[in-house]
Design brief:
By secondary structure, the protein is mainly β. Helices cover about 5% and strands about 35% of the residues. The chain is built from five helices and 48 strands. The strands form nine sheets. Strands 1, 3, 4, 6, 11, 12, 13 and 15 form an eight-stranded antiparallel beta sheet that branches. A seven-stranded antiparallel beta sheet has the order 2-5-14-7-8-9-10. Strand 22 and strand 23 form a beta hairpin.
Length: about 700
Amino acid sequence: MKNLLIGWVCLAAVSLANAEIVLHLPFDVDGTAAAGTDATLVNGASIVPEGMAGGALSLDGIDDYATTVGYKGMGGSAPRTISLWVKTAVNQSAGTFFLGWGNTGTGSRVRYDFGLNSSTTDQMRLELNSGAATSATGTTITDDAWHHLASTWDGATMTFYLDGNAYGAWSDATGVATVLTEDIVIGTGIRQAFGSNTTARWTNGLIDDVQVYDAALDATAIQFLYDNPGTPYIDTAYGPSPVDGISEVAIDTLLSWNAPTTYDNASYHIYFGPTEPNYVEADYGLTLLNSGGPQTELSIDPSPEADLDNLTTYYWIVDSYEPNSTGAILHPGKPWSFTTVTAQAKVETNPINQTVPDGTLVQLTVDGVNITTWHWYKDGAILDGTNPDIALFGGTETTATLEFTASLAGEGVYYCVVDNDLNSPDISAKAIVMTQRLVEYWDFNGTLDATVDAIHTGTYTDPNTANDPPAPVFTAVDDAVNLPGKGQAFIFDDSSRHIQIGGNVDDFNFYPAGYTVSAWINTAQTGYGAYVSKQALTSSQGFLLTHNSGNAIHGLRGQASLSTPAAINDGQWHMVAGTYDAASQTLSLYVDGILVNSGLRTAAVTTNSEPLVLGAELSDGSVDYAGLLDEVRIWSYPRSKEEIGQEYYDVTGVVPCINDFAGSVYDFDDNCIVDLADFAIFAAYWLDNGLLPH
């Protein structure tokens, strides 16, 4: 295998096996290329259906042409082949050019313009500048019939072909030295299209099936092109995908190619790897992907078990096998390459929620892989350095850490967008930053005003009479039912009427970072009825304080709620409070200053776009409350049991029992104190342990 491969590769260096079509313009519908660069039609050049193979480029012989913007052909003395079909009845007096490229200047051999020699009807000319190659004569070309014209240059000899037959050759010591300055032009010469030469050498007629190769095709190949108009001569796999030399290729790409055009039923060996091919080694020094034998399919997965590496150049070769009665004929492929995309930026460590005392230093950090740029956002707006409350760690918005001093102005939702040259950004999780504070308080002393921020003033709402809002209903100033020392209370009547809190719906969306909500209630309601709620209408998002069957409930939606062990719908005032500690994922419920239930809340906590509601569970007024409501407060952090006990004491003067040993076996007199009185009780009965009854 190795000796055979080396023999083929050595031959390929100087033979047709190394030829590749670099431009193929069928001109069937427009200037779209079947291979290489598309052509742009200029100055009225058009496509007509009467081509040799499909459509053709129609030219008026005055000033129209087509050009391959960005593609300039082969330069220097590199081998090449031009093949095209022409139908014309006219050769301009100074000659006609069908195709050309190179430089418009006067340097020696800087052009490569192919067409008809002046004052002839039967002779081709390839203008080089300070020299030209001409074909034989004898067969009329300007007879308004289709003719196949071709020219090959192998580095030493120019050979012309007309209608599949050799039609003269040329060589000299200077040879070809094309300078690549202008794009390829079809329908005239390089000077006529892009220079100042006004000599009329424009094609008047039709041109079709323009093909350019990067090697000198042999007579067999030229005969094939004549016999098969519109079909390129390709005896090995071609048209690679990914395109040869391309960058930013996906790491899960497939390899595919086109079958040779010169024979049917080809089969293929595919070699692939991250190192350049080595032609003196078997398998080119690459990995043979289909080691079980040649395949007939025109695609293959180069890495079926895992993605390719990012930012890596891969090389591949597809060798083609032509069926033959005495054994398959090997047609070695050309090496192709591509480079995979830069690895996508990815956040792996997200900023975390922080609720801290005012004045505390806050640091929000993201970390990840393949990141070269960071952009921080607050409440959806990019931080551009103009906010005086945000001092950026490192002095720029594009760092992994954002640092600032906690304040009311700095509260908000932060996140970071990371990226690299791939321009495929990743976005971090959102982090809520709050100062530890009382966010809002409603005392219901004759108004629905909020005492912390007026924007949170409530609106009494009746969903049944949206255009005729009801008047708020408060207890009388001196009503005996009022909470002692706290003035008036609000009256809810179980009629879907409720209070919706004003401001932005996001003002209370800090709750995933932790919160406390408390309210004083006085009710005899037996069914469900919510005191305070921020809950989505159609999903399990939000928090609430409510009750059912007289038992108070604290819920953080998405997981089971907490309820009190005893009913509180006794027509007396009770303080109900709920806390959520995000750090420990603990949900707690308090009644009258005492912790009555707690549990882990491990499900994800997400925000919602509904307003805060008092007196109902949902903003449509459903699950409404019947009873009195007073002293509603919301904090940005989970208050301690001492703080909640103090709040209850401040209103009632009653000392709640918050000690952990309350109700234990050592508090024999159940007064929330373990002292000598309890020891005396213990001492009096310590020898009675074995007597029944005690």
